[in-house]
From TrEMBL:
It comes from the Eukaryota. Transmembrane segments: none annotated. It comes from Apiospora aurea. Keywords: NADP, Oxidoreductase. Belongs to the short-chain dehydrogenases/reductases (SDR) family. It holds the Pfam family adh_short. This is 3-beta-hydroxycholanate 3-dehydrogenase (NAD(+)) 2. The keyword Acetylation does not apply.
Length: 272
């Protein structure tokens, strides 16, 4: 049964036609929320749309998140369809080929930063603007966190957001960058009831590595030097567990409490 706590709550999940994003979208739908999903892959998006459309609470739009015009349209369509927007899950991203800076082409740097950092910035920008134009869902509440809450950004980060030897230079820089975006956004907008939090994920079985082919392949020699080779099956984080945590963060009191945080969700790998 759908949880009444997320009924009339609207969530936008980027990169949600497969992998982690799809798991997050399903978890929010199962909790009773309205969910907008976007992806760049039309065929995969059509499959997700067909899977979820029976709920009557899903909007699926093909979107290139590196285009500001496309992102602005996505946010506007979400608000038009559901009346408001409460949560953004900035999930869309691509892996790099593990190239260190000396091997990295500018073209591949631009591709990875464009999706992971610029795309996250654009989605955050237009979602925060939407948050600012709407009232809190419970403006008269005696609970100050409920009375103030206008929206939450959940940014999917990585071990590479805080560590330098988990991936190539481009992915590492992009994931450090999104962590900084979260801190800056939390600091500037928290007093308005707009919150931001990053989830620092470890190894997962997702489709994020599919884009490596578009970068010209995988740098095996660099990967062999990376600390990522220490991972094993027992270190893999389940996408469903991350999705459940995203639903947990939808509570306005929790969102207020973790504002600006970078939360490790990685099965303590690498071990602290």
């Amino acid at each position: 049964m759908a949880s009444p706590s997320l009924q009339n709550t609207t969530v936008l999940v980027t990169g949600a036609a497969g992998g982690l994003g799809k798991a997050i979208a399903k978890a929010y739908l199962d909790a009773g929320a309205n969910v907008a999903i976007c992806d760049i892959h039309e065929a995969r998006l059509a499959e997700a749309r067909a899977q979820f459309e029976g709920t009557g609470r899903v909007l699926a739009l093909k979107t290139d998140i590196t285009s500001e015009e496309a992102v602005e349209h996505l946010v506007a369509e979400t608000v038009s369809r559901f009346g408001r927007l409460d949560i953004l899950v900035n999930n869309a991203g691509m892996m790099d080929g593990f190239d260190p800076v000396g091997d990295l082409s500018k073209a591949n740097w631009d591709k990875v930063l464009g999706v992971n950092l610029t795309g996250s910035f654009l989605c955050m920008k237009h979602t925060v603007r939407a948050f600012q134009t709407q009232q809190s869902k419970t403006p008269g509440s005696e609970d100050s966190d409920l009375a103030k809450f206008k929206g939450l950004v959940i940014q999917i980060g990585s071990n590479a957001s805080t560590m330098g030897h988990q991936s190539g230079a481009a992915y590492t820089a992009s994931k450090h960058g999104v962590a900084a975006l979260v801190k800056n956004t939390a600091g500037f907008y928290g007093d308005e009831g707009v919150y931001a939090v990053a989830l620092m994920l470890g190894v997962m079985q997702t489709n994020i590595a599919e884009g490596v082919g578009a970068l010209g392949g995988f740098n095996q020699a660099a990967f062999a030097k990376s600390s990522s080779v220490t991972s094993s099956g027992e270190n893999v984080t389940d996408t469903a567990d991350v999705a459940r945590y995203c639903v947990f963060l939808a509570d306005p009191r929790i969102a207020a409490g973790v504002n600006g945080s970078s939360i490790a969700f990685n099965k303590n790998w690498p071990r602290q």
